[in-house]
Write a structure and sequence with these properties.
globular, mainly alpha, two-stranded antiparallel ribbon, 21 helices, about 500 residues, 2 strands, about 65% helix
Length: about 500
């Protein structure tokens, strides 16, 4: 039975969207302080305007319902996609005022890309961007990587009843790490803080060795760490990680990418000292196996094209981009125009790596290695059944945190998500091709947007058609929330707007 939204539900949803918007205003104080510290007075004004706009909108939305009712399961699945839209709209305000974007739409694209940890960018003159604006770009990765809702849940901001867990699930978190969902959310932030701190220190030292000034070395280290760990892909320089021209620097970012693509439950097991889990877990085995196979294809493809003469370069470039693609990070050490020079084998290997993605309940996007592993297990199970006697009851299990039986429902769910992702990848590619781009490049860009990766062949630019900008924004938004919450939102709106069906 399809039940339309009541006016009370709409008011409650609006109220909590206001609470989350106020939280975003608080987050803008970080780039504001950065602007003041570095004497960037015009950018400081941009963030004062942004904070004022967020506070005004947040206050207005919060006034929709002053009773602060408990959030129902249904409301949570409507709040989540709307929260990402409003957060992107508000986060774009200071960026639009920065002068680094052609207009508000480009700034909104940047905000969506940052919050969804995609990393595709429409920024102009990035190499001379103010520190404060670069700080805000990368903070959107930090906020979105852990989740806008997770941030609110970890603070228990205005949440009552069972709403916290419902919101947690609605944001694509399939698994609870600790028995209490608030503690789970806080654990996510603790893990993140430790990785970001370690990464900033280590990369900061690497930058100092390269001759960077202390403050610049620290800021670049923090930004690259956040982008790598949150599998985002933004960088403070237009050359991405190629700017640093250091194999050691690239190796350090690889560890951060892999950590960011790991299930937070796996982080918890490793913290408890259960190191065997990473070897038994079907997700970890699928992810690392997938990267090894695709890296082999990428290396062979690069060797055939003779694009790199040294074997060390083949390994360094091939493996780095497969890991960057598979974890959904999007850092690259080549120019956008060079993708076509890698050869079709290496190019297709990177496409597959982006499409598969990292682990569930991580900062990575894509289909996710757990679903890929389940599908592969189901294929092997069917082959075993074909080769077994008719009287044999053939079953199989897999290990994901605990030993679990492979059931038809698990396989069905994995296949459903797999098909939706593939259909979306293809649809985005066809739309890009309809705008006149080569189909292979358009498919690459579509997968990069939907899987929240950020690698680009050069299609994503300030000069691309407005319709394609909007298309990629929708793909990034849908891919981050894994489609079902968006479907729920769409159906709820349609049902509630049907004549004589709105309950007051």
């Amino acid at each position: 039975m399809w039940i339309p939204l009541t006016l009370r539900e709409v008011r409650a949803i609006t109220h909590y969207l206001g609470v989350l918007t106020m939280g975003l205003a608080f987050a803008m104080s970080v780039p504001l302080v950065t602007a003041v510290l570095f004497g960037e007075w015009n950018p400081a004004l941009d963030y004062l305007v942004g904070i004022a706009a967020a506070c005004a909108l947040g206050t207005l939305l919060m006034l929709a319902d002053v009773t602060r009712p408990a959030i129902s399961h249904r409301q949570a699945f409507l709040i989540s996609p709307l929260a990402w839209l409003i957060a992107s709209a508000v986060a774009a305000v200071p960026l639009a005022l920065s002068g680094n974007y052609a207009g508000y739409l480009d700034a909104a694209f940047e905000a969506v890309s940052g919050l969804t940890t995609s990393g595709l960018t429409l920024v102009q003159d990035l190499d001379h961007m103010a520190y404060s604006h670069n700080m805000w770009r990368h903070l959107t990765h930090l906020i979105g990587g852990q989740g806008i809702i997770v941030a609110a849940v970890s603070l228990a901001v205005g949440l009552r009843g069972g709403g916290a867990f419902s919101l947690y699930l609605a944001e694509g978190r399939d698994e609870r790490i600790l028995p209490n969902v608030v503690h789970s959310a806080r654990f996510i932030w603790v893990v993140t803080a430790i990785w970001v701190l370690v990464g900033t220190v280590v990369l900061g030292v690497a930058n100092l060795v390269q001759g960077m000034a202390f403050s610049r070395a620290g800021l670049h280290a923090f930004w690259i760490t956040v982008a790598a760990y949150d599998t985002g892909g933004f960088a403070p320089q237009s050359l991405s990680t190629m700017y640093y021209r250091s194999g050691v620097f690239e190796l350090l970012t690889v560890f951060l990418m892999l950590a960011g693509a790991m299930n937070f439950n796996l982080h918890a097991d490793l913290w408890r000292g259960d190191y065997r889990e990473i070897f038994k877990n079907i997700e970890a085995r699928t992810l690392f196996g997938n990267m090894a196979i695709l890296a082999g294809f990428a290396g062979a493809g690069l060797a055939a094209t003779h694009f790199y003469s040294a074997n060390s370069e083949l390994l360094r470039k091939g493996l780095y981009h497969i890991i960057s693609a598979n974890t959904g990070t999007g850092h690259q050490t080549l120019y956008a125009g060079q993708w076509k020079d890698l050869g079709s084998v290496a190019f297709f290997a990177v496409i597959l790596a982006m499409a598969f993605g990292g682990m569930v309940s991580s900062t990575a996007g894509g289909i996710k290695s757990l679903r890929v592993g389940v599908i592969l297990k189901s294929i092997l199970l069917e082959v075993r059944r074909m080769l077994s006697p008719d009287s044999a009851a053939v079953r199989t299990s897999f290990h994901h945190l605990t030993d679990r039986e492979l059931t038809p429902q698990l396989v069905s769910t994995a296949l459903t998500v797999f098909v939706i992702y593939i259909a979306t990848y293809l649809a985005g590619g066809l739309i890009g091709a309809a705008y006149g781009y080569n189909l292979d490049a358009a498919l690459f860009e579509s997968i990069s947007a939907t899987a929240n990766v950020g690698l680009s062949t050069g299609i994503t630019s300030p000069t691309m058609p407005t319709g394609l900008k909007v298309t990629y924004m929708v793909l990034m938004w849908a891919g981050r929330l894994e489609f079902f919450t968006l479907m729920a939102l769409g159906f709820a709106i349609v049902i509630s707007l049907r004549p004589k069906r709105i309950v007051r």
